[in-house]
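Appendix B. Chain record.
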Amino acid sequence: MTSEVEEKPMNAIVASVQLPNVSDIEFEASLTELRDLAKTLGFKVVHSFVQKRASFDTTGYLGVGKRQEIAEFASHTTDCEIDALLVDHEISPSQARNLEKESGCAVMDRTMVILEIFHRNARSRAAKAQVEIARLGYMAPRLREAAKLAGPQGRQRSGVGGRGAGESHTELDRRKIRDRIAELQLEIIAMDAERQTQRARRQERQGLASVALVGYTNAGKSTLMRALTGSEVLVANKLFATLDTTVRTLHPESVPRVLVSDTVGFIKNLPHGLVASFKSTLDEALDAGLLLHVIDASDPGFERQLEVTNTVLAEIDADQVPRLRIFNKIDHVGDAAAQAECTAALRARYPDCVVMSARRPDEVAQLRATIVAFFRKDLVEAEIFLPWSAQQLRGELYANCEVLAEAADEDGARFRIRGEANAIERLREQLPVSSGPN
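Structure tokens predicted for this chain:
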């Protein structure tokens, strides 16, 4: 007899210290973000503990009284069993160990939470390798502190009196980590070279018109991607639902043909190792002719989202790429009057922005027209003559250029076209030498 075993829900409590230089709005936004990260990991947050302090407690992050309060809650709550304590900052191994001993719960700091989400969601070889490097980089500097806590059993003894050629377990582990990171970095270099070759071939075939969606995680980038391209891409109300770059063609197809790519979302206090290791994932932003910076208009803390995205783009040297701000999810801002008021305020503050909902087809169509117009400004008009012997080029002509007029006579067909200069030049190079407009 078989029976289905329901997965036991995981319950968590979150804790955070508010330092004097952090405003109440910023503090609450960060705490809300941690709760969302917990949800993405499959935790249900049952309680939050916050404390204002001049600095973090070096022993256990929170003050003694607050740690006792957490221990009381974890041991006496009757509604559920607490599986984890999530801390809204990066803490040292000794702080984590003390918190764990006092609370009786497994402790995960903010960096560990984010790394675990990336580890679970990575799909491609490149993303998996990048995440592993970041996780190993997070572990390496903590091994020495962990060894101190472990005591003398953390050392292998060798020779008289325990001295000699023996290495501590910590030293062995750190060496293994360094070797593994070096191995992964070589793999990523090889994958980057392969990706660059594929991208060059794609651009040679389809021109250079490309758009990259960038912005805060959960701002609606994947929903907008699906709306612009008519493709089935993952749309989930979770942070970091997208890790691997997805590339699709703008739909309906335009002249020039425009490629649209979705990139990994940004987040406040993203571990620097992840920013560095995901640079290749964000390379689509570097190669794009236009960035669509997607912002959640319904989030009261959207200014913080703007700041985070701008900072990360600057770190990967993508801040010089032309950018269009897209304030998405306007349909989540109250009733029609509230939406109109919000739209007017955003346009007054950011004159060139687009305010829309990715779920409204008419607004998606307007954005598509804006994207196409951006790339069309560099198109040129030309005349080209296809003799009847070269009619096999008609398909390529219609695929890569906009046909403004066509006229035929006994020698062939004459076209007036608009397109990218290099696409027109490629067509002319394939024509018989004697062909051309009379």
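Further analysis of this model is presented in Appendix C.
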